[in-house]
Design goal:
With about 220 residues, this protein is an alpha/beta fold. Helix content is about 30%, strand content about 20%. It is built from seven helices and eight strands.
C-alpha cells in the first residue's frame, strides 16, 4: 500500500536545507553517466574521514543511530522517496547529527554523484525484495547494481546486508557469488546469534517482533 503524502511536504523538505542533495536527472533510463555532478565529499563534510553509505534509509532509524555511534565516520543515506526521507532528515536535524547527509533519488544515479573508490562501507538494510521474477533487476543486489557498487567502493570495502526475506537473501548470495565476491559472517537468524552491536531498523523491529528470522551477510569484492 502506498504511503499517503505527508502534509506540508515541500515546506518540510525546504526546512531541511542543505542536508538533502537531490539526484535529479533527465535520463529516466539510467543510460547516460554524467559525472559533472560529482560531489566533493571532503568539502561536503568538512573533513577527510571515511564515508559509509546506506541505500534505502527509510525513516532514518539506522542511519541516525550509527552516525551517532561513529562520530569519526561520515555517512550518506540514500532514499528515493521524499515522503519517507523527510522524516529521516528531520530526525537527524533534531538530534543534531552533523556527520550525516541525505541523497534523494534512485540508486541507479549514484555514479553521477559519488566519486569512484570513495565509499568505505555500504549498508543494504531491508531493501525491497521485488519477489516477482520479472522484477529481479530492481533488487539492490542484482548484478547491475553490483556493477555500480564495485566502482564506488574502496578496495576491501564491505557490503553489509540485512533482510527478512529468505528468497531475496538466497538471490543475493547467488548474485554476489557470481560476481566473485567473498561472502562472510552469514547469519540465518541474526537475533538468535552471537552478533554484537546490531542496530535495529524500523522494518527489522517489526518483522522480528512477528517471529520472522533476520538474515545477514557481509560481502567484499575481489
Amino acid at each position: 500500500m502506498r504511503m499517503r503524502r505527508k502534509n506540508n511536504l515541500e515546506q518540510r523538505l525546504e526546512k531541511c536545507g542543505d542536508r538533502i542533495i537531490y539526484m535529479d536527472r533527465e535520463d529516466r533510463n539510467f543510460q547516460a553517466i554524467d559525472t559533472s555532478s560529482l560531489l566533493d565529499l571532503h568539502a561536503l563534510f568538512g573533513n577527510n574521514a571515511p564515508v559509509h553509505m546506506e541505500i534505502g534509509c527509510g525513516k532514518g532509524q539506522f542511519a541516525c543511530e550509527i552516525a551517532k555511534r561513529c562520530p569519526d565516520i561520515n555517512f550518506i543515506a540514500v532514499e528515493k522517496s521524499s515522503n519517507v526521507l523527510v522524516t529521516a532528515c528531520e530526525k537527524a536535524i533534531e538530534q543534531d547529527i552533523k556527520n550525516l547527509i541525505f541523497l534523494r533519488g534512485a540508486a541507479e544515479y549514484l555514479e553521477c554523484y559519488i566519486p569512484q573508490k570513495s565509499i568505505s562501507r555500504l549498508y543494504l538494510n531491508f531493501s525491497c525484495p521485488f519477489p516477482k521474477k520479472s522484477y529481479a533487476s530492481h533488487r539492490l543486489t542484482h548484478h547491475r547494481f553490483l556493477e555500480i557498487y564495485k566502482k564506488l567502493l574502496c578496495d576491501g570495502a564491505e557490503i553489509h546486508q540485512k533482510t527478512d526475506n529468505r528468497g531475496f537473501f538466497e538471490f543475493s548470495i547467488e548474485e554476489l557469488s557470481r560476481f566473485g565476491c567473498l561472502i562472510k559472517n552469514v547469519s540465518l537468524d541474526l537475533h538468535n546469534s552471537d552478533f554484537e552491536n546490531n542496530i535495529v531498523t524500523e522494518y527489522e523491529e517489526r518483522f522480528s517482533s512477528q517471529g520472522f528470522p533476520i538474515y545477514r551477510l557481509e560481502a567484499v569484492f575481489r
